[in-house]
Amino acid sequence: MSLLDASLIADVPPFRGINRENLVELLSKAKSERYEIGRTIFCQGEEAHSFFLLLDGHVRVIKVTPEGDQVIARYISNGELFGIAHALGLERYPANAVTAVDCVMLSWPGKLWGTIIEKYPTFATNTYQTVGSRLQETQNKLVEMATKRVEQRVANAILKLANQTGRKTDEGILIDFPISRQNISEMTGTTLHTVSRILSAWENKGIVKSGRKKITVTEDHQLALLAAGELYN
Amino acid sequence: MSLLDASLIADVPPFRGINRENLVELLSKAKSERYEIGRTIFCQGEEAHSFFLLLDGHVRVIKVTPEGDQVIARYISNGELFGIAHALGLERYPANAVTAVDCVMLSWPGKLWGTIIEKYPTFATNTYQTVGSRLQETQNKLVEMATKRVEQRVANAILKLANQTGRKTDEGILIDFPISRQNISEMTGTTLHTVSRILSAWENKGIVKSGRKKITVTEDHQLALLAAGELYN
DNA sequence: ACGGGTATTTGATCTAAAACAAGCTTCCGA
DNA sequence: TCGGAAGCTTGTTTTAGATCAAATACCCGT
Q: In this record, what's one Pfam family (chains A, B) (predicted)?
């Protein structure tokens, strides 16, 4: 199953510390698949059949409310696990996952999780660490929502995307996948209109350059100040 | 160490499915302690020395921002684990924990966690399940913050408290520990003034009865409608 | 029973951001 | 190269809820 050389993948964080033999075994149980842009990987409420490791691309994790409002819980990048409902003792996926660009990922059948805990405890521990850091990250976002205003939240969201997935260009740090005003509003709990106004204002001040589904951060330090709420004009 | 009879504690959720021998062993490694009301159990940023199981009482888990704003992440009740930084691969506590009433709890040294995974895998699995459900709960709160207005969030918060920790009285369901308007505002991302106004309005409609640090829900169904945003007047 | 601290209520004003409403730009497929 | 859809901008109006500002109620210790 591995066209992927085990040695190439060995330093992806979820595999850190696993011995060679176990890694090869674990990879042999995975299915590798390509997902084209916009494809739904799994749906909220659906029975959790698999868990995934993203090898290349970006995935949006989306929560949908009964009223139809949509919130982007996080973006998954390169080398991250997702859809790990089984590790959390869940039978159903708690969110949707949709590719933001073309992706390649590994997947394991969810029912394998029990075996994994026993046979590859290092991998299990790494997975739990992922869960732990997501809990923290989510809690931090909650605090941010409760205490910061919209501009700071938007600054923070863009800053994080730039740091995690940004690509250096001659103009600044480009967020490396198509992201709309609407998407950013769904990450920060506001409206696309407000995001548009904020980005326009920043563009005038030379902090960002942006276009259709495209954002480049030119003055990340300024943006960090805005995120911290230290600058008001 | 166990004045506590193992058989009494055996059906506390984190211990579910553990065999008798392991349970006794696990309990023998715990320290049991009483914490009086208002006492700080641990602080955000402090090195994680122990993890805890609350046997009786209520604990507030609080996140503090660099600016000094305070957010109540959750209330811990009877039979719940908390301070489980070690299980998440963290070296420091990510929040404060303060008792909301007099409490009794068990604690284990954090450095034991490695041993626990090996020797009491069932307990470890239960712990991870706790983490999983907290991640979900936190994510749901985030969605709520992003999409619902203040009154709905307050309704939801009070409803949850009433369900989880409420005591039936002849007037309705009483939240069984002292909770101020300020506390509720810190749970819902608003101000004590707004909470006060909302409670006054509800009191006029006969949905709740409330006093100083005391709330009784008299019409929980009405409150559930408000939480869902189905009622506007 | 009194006094001071803590919690609550309620009014008045202000404002950030939502909602409403057009118009404009960019892209892509026919 | 044209037309329509999707995405973006920007002006205006509205409003939920914060902020400002007192006044009042309750509780506990002496």
A: cNMP_binding
